[in-house]
Amino acid sequence: MEENQKLNDVTIDIDLKEGVDLVQEGKKIEAGLRLINKSARTGTTKGKSYFEVGRIIREGIPGLDANPEEARKYFDAAMEHFEHSAQDSLDQREMGDYYNYGLGTKPVDKNKALSYYDPSAEKGDEISAQRAVEIRAQLAKGTATTNPVLTPETEAVENAEGTIVNENAPVEITDEDVKKVVDEDQLLIKAIRVLNNSESTKQEKEDAVELVKAATEEGSMRATVLTAYLFEGDNELVPEDVNKAKEFYEKAIEKGSSTAMYRLGILYTDEEVPFANVKKGRELILQAAHAGNAWALAYLGDCFRVKVDDKRNLEVAYRYYALAGERGLGLAYHFMAEIDASRQQLDLAQDHERLAIEFGYDPELGYQDPAFYGLSI
Deepest of 94, 234, 268, 269, by most Cβ within 10 A of its Cβ? Predict the structure, then answer.
């Protein structure tokens, strides 16, 4: 929950406020999650509570990796509560965010977002006012941030509703859910810290790999993905075994991992692996894109971008990159900036390059920091 300007019309349930404060302090995260959960079940501002749950799941916190797809159902629940209760300026801002950033199952709709930001701004919300200004600037420059139409060229098969997710019913987080997530991933979090520490010894990293395997056995989806990734062999800790990588990616997919869909899809497109199957690989990558995976969306953007013989392909590529950028992939914003520059939209190119850097892309090294897009989701 973003800091407000102490607006007189804003009402926040006391459990929600205390819970958010604890989570933001980073000292009593589990206690904070319990309070937020309580406010979603019994509080007086359930719209804000569900929105905060969605934000936490979408962005991630220590002990809970980011999962934008899982977050959608909570943002949908927040909107349902907002629509059936009196709306203050923060409610309206969060409703605007829902459509501005495509947080739920409904597509991005900048004009709809403005219909909420504007009344919020009139009540004195400076953040809403700023976002309304940004949207109008984007619309004036023709920025493409709406959901793309998946065409036959990408071999997409949309479901009957034409949506990415069909889980529209509000879902509450129970105390048991919170405890399970926190306990399940503690081994993994500890292991990742060791593996990412340049000062860790080889023995410490080998021990960390054992922790990852233990977390996998405990049922952690994220640990299962990381185990599969290690078996791909781009490291000195685990011998390459693409068959085992495939096995663990399949297990993670069963648990709902869009990253596993994307990674396994990439493996299938590698003609050197024994189970190579380009068609199946593309199908998996498309499934990952439907699930909101940032890298899969960027991959589809790349597919259209290379088809320069038809300028319409560049527009579709741009939209895929926009979706990937909204999910935290700075590299996608960099690609948007390159397209902007090719169109002589230099101001817009600068804006997107700034976002690329903010979301972990290093333009000098051409490197994307994995912390920004949740590799282990």
Answer: 94
Q: What is the pLDDT of residue 272?
A: 93
Those residues whose C-beta lies under 8 Å from the C-beta of residue 337, and which sit 6 or more positions away, are: 348, 349, 350, 352, 353, 356
Q: Judge contact between 183 and 29, C-beta under 8 A.
A: no
Count of CB atoms situated within 10 Å of the CB of 49: 31
Angle at which helices 258-268 and 242-254 pack, to 10 degrees?
150
Question: d(Cα 372, Cα 43) in Å, to the nearest integer?
Answer: 32
Instruction: Report the pLDDT value the prediction gives residue 337, as an integer from 0 to 100.
Output: 95
152 secondary structure, DSSP code: G
Q: What is the Cα 251 distance to its own chain's centre?
A: 21
Nearest Cα to Cα of residue 332 among 320, 315, 340: 320
Structure-token pair, residue 249 = 């990616």
Question: Tokens 């399949």 label which residue?
Answer: 250
Integer angstrom CA distances of residue 188 from 216, 293, 361, 365: 8, 21, 25, 28
Interval 255-275 mean pLDDT: 93
Q: What is the DSSP secondary structure assignment for residue 236, as one 8-state letter?
A: S
Q: List, as one string, the DSSP characters of 307-337.
A: -TTSHHHHHHHHHHHHHHHHTT-HHHHHHHH
> Per-residue pLDDT tens for 275-299?
999 999 999 999 999 888 899 999 9
C-beta neighbour count of 12 within 10 angstroms: 20
**What are the phi and psi torsion angles at 196 (to 5°)?**
-90, -5
- 3-class secondary structure, 362: strand
Q: Is 61 helix (H, G, I), strand (E, B) or coil?
A: strand
- With left for phi above 0 and alpha for psi between -120 and 50, is residue 233 left, alpha or beta? left
Identify residue 67 by its one-letter amino acid code: N
| pTM of this prediction exceeds 0.85 | no
From residue 2, give the alpha-carbon distance in Å to each of 79, 113, 124.
17, 17, 15
Give residue 132's Cα distance to chain centre.
23
Closest residue by Cα to residue 182 from 60, 77, 280: 60
Q: How far apart are CA 49 and CA 4, in angstroms?
A: 16
Q: Tokens 């403005």 belong to which residue?
A: 114
Maximum Cα–Cα distance across the chain: 64
Instruction: Output the six-digit token pair for 375.
Output: 């590799």
